[in-house]
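User: Hey, quick favor. My workstation is busy. Could you predict this chain's structure for me?
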Amino acid sequence: MAFLPSVKMPKVPPSKGQKGQDVHKVTTPIEKLVGEEGLLRFAQIAEGVDMTTGEPFKFGQGEWAWQLDVLRRFYRERRLVILKARQLGVTWLAALYTLWKALVYPYTRPLIVSRTREQASMTLRNYVGELYRRLPKALQVGTVSEQAFLMRFKNGSEIVTQPSTEDAGRGFTGALAIMDEAAYQPYAELTYLSLKPAVDNGGQLIVFSTAKGVGGFFHRLWEEAVAGQNGFAYLFLPYHLHPHRDEAWREQQRREFLEEWMLAQEYPATIEEAFVMSGRPVFNPITLQRLRQEAKEPIQTPPDLALLDPYIQVFAEPEAGHFYIVGVDCAEGLIHGDLNAICVIDGLTGEQVAEYASRVEAFTFAEHVNIVARYYQAAEVIVERNGIGAAVLLKLRHINPQLRLYRDQTVRRRFTIHSVYGWQTTVKTKPLLINALQEGLHFGRLRPNSKDVLDEMVHYQRDEDGSTHAAPGHTDDRLMAMALAWYRTRELQLRREKVGDLPSYFYYNPPTETEGMYSWLREAMKEWEEAQRRGQLIRPLSEVLGESAL
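Assistant: No problem, here it is.
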């Protein structure tokens, strides 16, 4: 067997860094600041600078001692999500922890992801860089490179910052990853998807942000952490942790902000306030909280509705002399799709008396709608005819021709009026429903009893372009069924305010030719409406009706 001849290799002197130290083999006092206590000592040595006044400050001093508790959580938790108020110095704490990690533990590679390119650069330059430059010389290990998004040290560590992009965090492997203001990062979910595998082998992932409503990535991460579903510890930092903020300060802020949700978003006092009241909620969260407290519990399902268990909740049985409106929002019946929803409102009191939600097929749902409508004294039924709603309407007309279905009158060419069964929801008609619902809740005319529909209202938001929708991960089917029922209820209530002595059966649909005993009422109302349009109504309507009945 042949062997290669031995070769004597020449000795190569080690490369020198500052003061003759070996590159990547630096031994400095900072390496003694290991562990949790070392982190706290480092924090008390480090010095930041107020971005507003330019004055230096120390961490964890006096009334800011709670900052040391936050750093302890940074050290102890492998996965941590923080919900915070603005201007509490959390970004400074994250920069301090990142710098400590890189200096104390050689060859460490932390990453901070910020909202924008400018913020990512500022985080490294104005936070991490400023902290490093203000350290005592004995604790500085020396830098090899300082770039816009990279700071490399002579101990082999490097700190990287990146803006939120589709590829942020992709390919990263390191001991620490931080997402700053995650609720406002445009690609937060993709970033999280990239970072989580990168730190699964013993690394840390810290996510913090102010709130931005419900349903988004950050809110879902927080909710799952609270429920113990994702392995994240959680921490809430309210506005009053700042020593200079008290109730008087917050009241002043309340007056200065244009809307309540803005204050809740920037300076929340509670977790519920932070999420529920921020993010442009359509319905007033304070009103919804009050309605939840006042809501009735469901009663036992009446025998006539037993077939609909467990889909239905009944809050009140029908009463003689009342009229009831049924709102119907239809779905495809898919297992993981939207819900079929029914809402029943007492037209005299504005109280929700029943609610139904299921994922049954359209033909079965139509039968269930018919059962509910018949039970509540042949109430008028207003069905959203979008999509599968047309099939539900067709089935309803087949199984119960006498059912009073809402008809939508539209004006076509040459001023021809067409009457179409059901309600068509469009970008023009949807605001009518939502605005009527807002008004009904605000003035107390509408009284929801279902906690499920109140939850949907909590998670219903308005975009910057004015459009409204359920937050991601939530539904609005019960809400839309209630909006339909309330819109029609309010129309009939306004008619009742003008005509106070009509029997309750009038408030369903105007009588038709086939309703012989009520044909006189139809003719009387036609005469009255014509006179009202011409401004010639002098006699009370009761007299008109009285003469017509003779």
